Amino acid sequence: MDDTRNMTSSEKQMFSNDDSQRGKVVLAATPIGNISDASDRLKTLLATADIVAAEDTRRLYDLANRLQIHVNGRIVAYHDHNERDKSDSLLDDVENGATILVVSDAGMPTINDPGLAIVRRAIARQLPVTCAPGPSAVLDALALSGLPTDRFCYEGFVPRKRSEQLKKFRELQYETRTIVFYETPQRIAQTMKSLLEIFPANRPMALARELTKNYEEVRRSTISGIADSVEQDPPRGEIVLVIQGASEQEIHHISSALSIEELARLSLAYANDNHTRLKDAIAQILQDHPYPDGSLANKKTVYQTALEIKEL
Fold first, then answer.
1. What are phi and psi of 107, to 5 degrees?
2. Which domains are seen in the chain, by residue range?
3. How many whole angstroms separate alpha carbon 247 and alpha carbon 249?
4. Which of 251, 254, 204, 207 is nearest to 229 (CA)?
5. Does pLDDT of 235 surpass 70?
6. Given pLDDT bands bounded at 50, 70 and 90, which one contains residue 5?
7. 265-273 mean pLDDT
8. Contact partners, residue 47, CB within 8 Å, separation at least 6
9. 55: closest CA among 31, 75, 25?
10. Are 198 and 173 in contact, with CB atoms under 8 Å apart?
11. Could you give the maximum distance between any two Cα atoms of the chain, in Å?
């Protein structure tokens, strides 16, 4: 592998840019699939940083080998389980003049990857922090989705448990911005079922997988259409979900939130029509009529009101 001793004069000039200055933390984005997406700046930083804090040191070595870059600095493991413990000692090195390069396995550190702890503590200690931007699965999926990009919110990974999924989706059902999630192949089928329980089936969305890789795919349809495609052709690889925000028609329903008495009367009617227990009817009605923020009315209050109505 090459190192700085074998560089041409023009390459040495490139290495003498601002990133060679001492005493800073640099967050650098790494390729999310296609190695050609590695920037010259990333290559420079890998070769010249005093310390490289990597989420997975084995993947770092593999990246360096593929880029034909020799990592001259000290390499340390910096991941979810140790970043809080290691941040301060790394920042001590920054105070002594070291350049610390922080890289994750793929994409930008801090975006569902380690890095936030060292950024916050560097800010608290008034130490320099900067970014070497690059590939991002969130932005790539958003751009390729064909959905509005002027306003969006990134929600990280979809919660694992179904109850938490439904709670999260209720909170977001009236969100007007485009919504972006990460998901895994093992959980995508359940996630689509949960989406269909809360969101309108005809809400436009996209499913992107294996971005920048050989098997890159973007499925564009409605929530029900994507759910059908997941059932018929389960997607593999890393998945990003992009969901269009609520329309004006959906937002209009916010102003029609039902009162406790209305919920109680609906529950009584539902119990009578479906020959079910009042408590079960209330649970169903509350699920069907959440408040604008996604929360549900208090079951005990609705139940008590329903009993009072029956006694009239």
1. 85, -160
2. 4-135 (3.40.1010.10), 138-251 (3.30.950.10), 257-311 (no CATH)
3. 5
4. 207
5. yes
6. very low
7. 92
8. 3, 4, 15, 69, 70, 71, 72
9. 75
10. yes
11. 92
Q: Please give the model's pTM, rounded to 2 decimal places.
A: 0.74
Cα angle for residues 107, 93, 37 (degrees, 5° grid) = 20
139-169 burial string, b = 16+ CB within 10 Å, else e?
bbbbebbebeeeebebbeebbeeeeebbbbb
Burial tier of 305 (Cβ tally within 10 Å: 0-12, 13-18, 19+): buried
Whole-angstrom distance, CA of residue 221 vs CA of residue 266: 34
- Does position 13 have pLDDT exceeding 60, yes or no? no
Question: How many other C-beta atoms lie within 10 A of the C-beta of residue 8?
Answer: 8
- Could you say which DSSP state residue 295 is in? -
Give which of 73, 76, 63, 65 is closest to 106, Cα–Cα: 63
Q: How much is the average pLDDT of 168-181?
A: 92
Three-class secondary structure of residue 52 per DSSP: strand
Exposure of 105 by Cβ count < 10 A (0-12 exposed, 13-18 middle, 19+ buried)?
A: middle
